[in-house]
């Protein structure tokens, strides 16, 4: 018997959203009970003409114009009959998820996947993380069935540039700053695999009302530099940022008091995974996450070394280039 799971996604034109759509569309044969997905993308009216929206349509995704801050009743109407609602919304629009969750509850959806998709940490370390937890609080107050999916840091943001510039075409944010002693392990995933992991997770009753940590490998920054040198034959240049400097950077951003901006989000991320070591399987277990690798032993995405080979062979795509 085959099961067709109806999914609605907000943020499908973005990087994480594109991976989720690709993963859900690619799962034939990977899921139990021959499950597959029917995908509807809720796209802001102002984004309907974007190439990323056209690309969704070309991949068979039903595109529906929707403004989360618009009519509640209309949003409920759109979500009627949907089983899973997924958010991969931009971090500065997270609060709009309140409207999405309210509509999902009223429409009777069976699983809500709030926008997490990042590194693991306790509360009080990263404002961005805390904003996501506040949405989860709201979801839980609604008693809306949910699944949180965190994936660690993307490979695509973890690789330093090399002196020849041969990797520059694929790197959106070269990772040449080494935090602390560079020996803190951090969980990493290729952004292209997020959707494959999501497909497994959202079709599995065991992950309902759970947080799942779905990452591929752990690496320290020093190990990444060594791997880059092995693949490229070039030693990346590095800038050291001590634990004390990172703490001072975080404190400065917080004192500036202008809320969450990209600089604060980045420093808090780097301090959390690069100095504190929050983004580890051990920390995730402590925080109550279910481990993806325990649910699906042997189901692994691309290795970091595969991605480095792609970069070296001009086969890597630069994130956010669409
Ligand atoms: N793990 C990591 O290393 C990592 C790296 C980057 C991001 N992330 C996380 O991944 C999540 C998604 O980030 P991303 O970088 O993938 O996103 P992104 O590429 O910036 O895309 C954001 C998406 O949100 C949509 N959006 C923006 N404002 C909206 C609004 N008001 N209403 C509805 N949709 C709106 C955009 O649609 P339009 O086409 O309409 O603009 C777009 O589809 C974030 O939570 C972020 O923290 C994690």
The count of DSSP E runs of length 2 or more, i.e. the number of strands, is 13
Side by side, the strands of the main sheet go: 3-2-1-4-5
Rounded radius of gyration (Å) = 20 Å
What's the CATH class label?
Answer: Alpha Beta
Query: According to CATH, what is the topology?
Result: Rossmann fold
> Cα distance, first to last residue?
38 Å
Q: CATH homologous superfamily?
A: NAD(P)-binding Rossmann-like Domain
What is the number of independent domains?
1
Task: Tell me which ligands are bound.
Answer: NADP nicotinamide-adenine-dinucleotide phosphate
CATH architecture: 3-Layer(aba) Sandwich
Bin the strand percentage. 15-25%
Pfam family, one: NmrA
InterPro entries: NAD(P)-bd_dom_sf, NmrA-like, NmrA/Isoflavone_reductase-like
Domain NmrA-like: 6-249
GO molecular function: oxidoreductase activity
Walk me through the topology.
Elements: E1 4-10, H1 15-25, E2 36-43, H2 51-58, E3 62-65, H3 72-79, E4 84-87, H4 97-107, E5 111-113, H5 127-141, E6 147-150, E7 153-154, E8 177-179, E9 186-189, H6 194-202, E10 210-213, E11 217-219, H7 221-232, E12 239-241, H8 243-256, H9 262-276, H10 281-286, E13 290-291, H11 292-295, H12 304-312
Parallel strand pairs: 1-2, 1-4, 2-3, 4-5, 6-10, 7-9, 8-12, 10-13
Antiparallel strand pairs: 9-11
Please describe the structure with a list of short key phrases separated by commas or semicolons.
single chain, three-stranded parallel β-sheet, 322 residues, Rossmann fold
